[in-house]
Design a protein that fits this description.
Layout: E1 9-11, E2 18-20, H1 29-44, E3 52-59, E4 65-71, E5 91-98, E6 109-115, E7 119-123, E8 126-130, H2 140-152, E9 159-163, H3 169-174, E10 180-185, H4 188-200, E11 206-210, H5 213-220, E12 226-229, H6 238-245, E13 251-256, H7 259-268, E14 272-280, E15 290-297
Parallel strand pairs: 4-5, 9-10, 9-12, 10-11, 12-13
Antiparallel strand pairs: 1-2, 3-4, 5-6, 7-8, 13-15, 14-15
Length: 300
């Protein structure tokens, strides 16, 4: 697009055709309001900034908004990029993020520009502190139903290893049902969010471990009897699957966002049998489908 001003929108699937968007059907009203404000402001004032890669807009259950300006360099962004947001009382946090690799949409380095350091979001009665890089489910209603389903598969004696935990939303949600939870997460923002959220929710039986699950599982596999795992799209590392097969774990609750890698992993988990599969539609009007699979150790 050779327009003399910035546009917020997206590319038509499998093309380089860019379309300006003021209203996303799947987004909350507060996000769409920010989209419209920025698009209108950039157009009227012919605002262009070549160092800008993208803009991330996050919202919470109160429709408060965090706006993250992702740039190609660490050079501080001019206030003309976010000027119209200063009068939007629902915008409670503005950040700049340095995109340190083209392989990722956002980088690991964030700089607070204005207002609050975080959002506070909620699933059920549990509140969660959200920083720019914190992973959090965007569909709270479906996340709540999914977590309630997971709780039905647990009992008070279970000691849970919560893998790829993000802000430990699953771990915290199920903590009241089980004996102990170990939440394992590698991202700095998510670990910080998890630890602060545990204090906020007054949870006493949950421990957050910062590290790569593929490494940390070796240390914690004998501490629990249940594994809750919500991996990225690439699924579970084959070496970890071998460790799981040879572990003392009685139950596995696998939440997958990629059916292809889920099927692959289930075939490799040879010491476990599938008891229950629940399809989950987290993103309506898309082809995306998540799957919740409950497995139990095979009896010898």
């Amino acid at each position: 697009d050779n327009s003399p001003y910035l546009k917020l929108g997206g590319y038509k699937e499998r093309t380089n055709i860019f379309k300006e968007i003021d209203n996303l059907k799947l987004a909350e009203p507060a996000i769409n309001k920010v989209l419209r404000e920025l698009n209108t402001y950039y157009k009227i004032n012919n605002i262009f900034y070549d160092d800008l890669s993208s803009i991330v807009i996050r919202s919470n259950y109160l429709e408060e908004v965090m706006v993250i300006f992702v740039t190609k360099s660490k050079k501080p962004i001019p206030n003309l990029l976010y000027k119209p947001l200063l009068n939007n009382e629902k915008v409670v946090s503005i950040y700049q993020n340095y995109q340190d690799s083209e392989r990722r949409n956002v980088g690991f380095q964030n700089k607070l520009i204005l207002k609050e350091k975080h959002l506070t979001d909620k699933i059920g009665e549990f509140k969660f502190i959200i920083y720019p890089n914190s992973f959090f489910q965007v569909n709270r209603d479906i996340a709540y139903l999914t977590y309630e389903k997971i709780k039905t598969l647990l009992d008070k004696n279970d000691i849970v290893i919560d893998a790829f935990a993000g802000v430990s939303s699953i771990g915290q949600f199920v903590s009241e049902k089980v004996n102990k939870v170990y939440s394992i997460e590698i991202d700095d923002d998510s670990v910080m969010s998890a630890k602060q959220s545990i204090k906020l929710n007054n949870i006493k039986n949950l421990e957050v471990i910062k590290g790569d699950f593929n490494i940390e599982f070796l240390k914690y596999q004998d501490k629990g009897n249940t594994l809750i795992i919500d991996p990225p799209r690439q699924g579970i590392n084959s070496k970890v699957i071998e460790l799981i097969n040879n572990s003392k774990l009685d139950k596995i609750i696998y939440l997958s966002c990629n059916l292809k890698t889920l099927v692959r992993d289930l075939k490799l988990l040879t010491n476990y049998e599938v008891i229950l599969v629940t399809p989950i539609k987290m993103f309506y009007q898309t082809f995306e489908m998540e799957s919740l699979v409950y497995l139990k150790k095979k009896k010898k």
